[in-house]
What does this fold into?
Amino acid sequence: MKTDIYHAIDDQTDRLKKLARWIGEHPELGHEEVMASGMLSDELERQGFRVDRGVLGLPTAFIAEYAAAKSGPTIAFLCEYDALPGLGHACGHHLICTMGLGAAIGLKAAIDRVGGTIRVYGTPAEETTGAKVPMAEAGLFDDVDAALMAHPFHRYERSGTSLAMDAIQFEFFGKSAHAAANPQDGVNALDAVLLTFNALNALRQQLESHVRIHGVITEGGKAANIIPDYAVARFYVRSANRPYTDETVRKAIRCAEGAALQTGCTLKVSNYEYSYDELRTNEPLSDAFTRNLNELGVPLDAIQDGQDHGSLDLGNVSRRCPAIHPFVQVIDESFSLHTPEFRDLAMTERALDGMIVGAKALAATAYDVLAQPGLLARVRESFEAGVNA
It folds into this structure.
């Protein structure tokens, strides 16, 4: 049966590569992925999927579905297709979305014989206000038995962990004055921002090692001879889990409150992007993906243990259904994600071949969940244990 899956993907390889290359050459930022979303939706309809576009009022989000006549588990393949500002597809999302598409096409060749439902989720803006967050909150993954995606990288890695994250904005409101003639009449909002940075730098000494706090000043004044009456700083606060992230955010807010008190400013705190939860890898599902990679010719000793690579909106999905996020080797050089070097190599034929391997491994793993009741039971048991932990 897996042979049929692989043949179906092979039959579409040229088409999949052409689509991935086109999306890579035409990068679109989050929630602006009109062309990528449209092309993926059109292709899924051509392959016999029913497509619901503009899910949750998000113009570039979609859900495509194909249901076999025989009932069975629901498998989700997740597609990301947003690019990075100034860098384009330096995170390989043009490969991620086409891997998901290819996996869905492959599984469709076998699902009528085993039963079940295939869903392809088009999830915009993973790099910023990831659509998986409102999708998860709306319950769109609650009936999914396995959510699968794979990320391009310079090596193979098992699905690992990610950092929970909050995006916090501090706005300080002061009072302008002439910086030379009457500075005593001013209330310096920029000073409050700088004090916040210094307080956070001191706070890091008393935080656990897995915490990351990094930020920028997005507004710091208009001219050197005017006391700034408005200043803004934005921070990402991350840690290994949601409870400690929440605790760290409370401490960060107190740092900003202290800066406001010292300078006489008023403070407004808000979230400027969605909050991401940590990824809870479903280990039985991850084991199945690793076995399928091995069956496709990847040596087990070439598949490294999962690492933390930042924050993912898939973490929010993993709280609603079993999920994995392994890494698939698509380049042979050790360039990091979010670099021009990775972007350029992710457009080569080598990378497109790696994408096809990833699509086959995803589809084969999905088939195992459909065809092996014992695996499905272990996947569900592991998920429930994580939810109740």
